[in-house]
Design a protein that fits this description.
There is one protein chain. The chain contains two helices and five strands, in the order H-E-E-E-E-E-H. The chain is an alpha+beta fold and about 90 residues long. Strands 1, 2, 3, 4 and 5 form a five-stranded antiparallel beta sheet that branches. Strand 2 and strand 3 form a beta hairpin. It is globular, with a radius of gyration of 13 Å. The chain starts with a helix and ends with a helix.
Length: about 90
């Protein structure tokens, strides 16, 4: 589905849109107030069938010029790289 400015207007009530990025993985993509950038949270389906947050891009806005799908993939990459670099307990 092609996403447009109209789509952003449609998601204002909930504040985010779901973009599937891989099997059992999706990003909750959130536009900023002027729709110039996105933030997001990467979700993965656990073995128990429940979706769990893998992390978010709080300090890393993604340009809206990329479009929804590319921005969601960028969120997924950023979160995975941050998780990979995080110290293990």
């Amino acid at each position: 589905m092609a996403r447009t400015e109209d789509h952003i207007d449609d998601i204002k009530e909930q504040g985010w849109t779901r973009v599937d990025t891989a099997p059992e993985e999706w990003v909750a993509l959130v536009p900023n107030e002027d729709h110039s950038a996105f933030g997001g949270t990467l979700w993965k389906r656990g073995e128990d069938g429940i979706d769990y947050s893998e992390g978010c891009t709080a300090a890393h806005p993604i340009s809206a010029a990329l479009g929804f799908e590319a921005a969601a993939r960028a969120v997924a990459v950023i979160v995975k790289e941050e998780n990979r670099a995080a110290p293990k307990d």
